[in-house]
Amino acid sequence: MVKSPEKQSEINASESQISKKIHHQIVIIGGGAAGITCTSLLLAQNDSLDLAIIEPAEKHYYQPGWTMVGGGVFQVEETVRDEQDLIPEGVTWIKDYAVKLDPENNLVLTKEGLEIEYDYLIVAAGIQINWHLIKGLKEAIGKNGVTSNYSPIYAPYTWELIQNFQGGNAIFTYPNTPIKCGGAPQKVMYMADDKFRELGVRDRTNVMFCTSLTKMFTVEEYSDILDRVVAERNIKVKFRCDLKEIKADSKEAVFDLTKNDETVEEITLKYDMIHVAPPQSAPDFIKGSPLAVPNNRFGWVDVNKDTLQHNRYPNVFAIGDSSSLPTSKTAAAVRKQAPVLVANLLALMSSQPLQNHYDGYTCCPLITGYNRLVMAEFSGYTSTPMSSFPLNPIKERWVMWIMKKHILPWVYWHRMLKGEKFEGDLIKFMQWQYKK
Length: 436
What we know:
Shape: globular
CATH architecture of the largest domain: 3-Layer(bba) Sandwich
Number of strands: 22
Number of domains: 3
Number of helices: 11
Low-confidence stretches: 9-15
Structural class: alpha/beta
């Protein structure tokens, strides 16, 4: 789940003495997409397993839906369910924060002072949103033209800004860190551009994409499509341009722009609205633990990219956004990682070799406007396009917009989180659409 560093610091500061000691066979940290999916898959293989999930939140969000909230397609209420309705029956829900990891002794300590001993640990703790790393952002966010779809609190404000925009500078940013869903900062930009044209304000609007990256997307074939999209729409792109400060009083955004000779120039741009993709990392309690990648500023859990097993603690596995897996951090990646992790964990428990391998698959449904979408499936390990459908993936398609809007949310709630296969459902949907 998404966490803020301020909340984590508050938790760490209030860490209490051990009040109770318990033991579970398998402990899962995180009740988001990765944690719930792994739990469901484990129970499907062996319903006698003793499983516990550590998750403080009472609400579970379909986070891929927040872009659609920002674009006015969904209401934020459509992206949330009660956590208790998603945790499988028979699983112990520990409604608390993990604050300390002690893998040498197979222990997790919680905010409330619970010491949990495990035989096996799955870290599915999600990503931390570091609003504080951009000066002035915490104070500015959610008002006077500053917004972000990386929170259900602010995504509705994005739509408010878009539909009430009267012209000027509309800036969309991408930070100098790995982030949840690398395409998200662009998706809202293309929907905003569509809406500005519909409202008749596009001719007096400058749409700008300021990205720390050197190209529009990490996979060349998809990047080429996006190059064409921004050129056709007259969207101005500034590469190697990293947001570092919001000056709310003057409505200015300050960036570090890295030039071709590697010198860095500070530039200031006026904004009338700005959508910020904030810097992100693993949660602080992981960063400061023995499970983190050594000498890595992001603090990801150090796992083998093929097996998802920890590189130093064999009874520990990690999945999803908080892991060190070198691929894009998306729910689609979790969908492919979870069966591999579960199979390898069960093999370990049976003293068998870990034979299942994850190939780096991920997917970023690249919304390029209302009713247009590139289903960017690829391996993050090889930057090679892939496709789950009998269609060329390197193309904008209306049917993929329908998939994003109607099918994938249903699949998430009714198939993925329940550990059920659904690839056949998607293929049937495609066949049905093309028969219409």
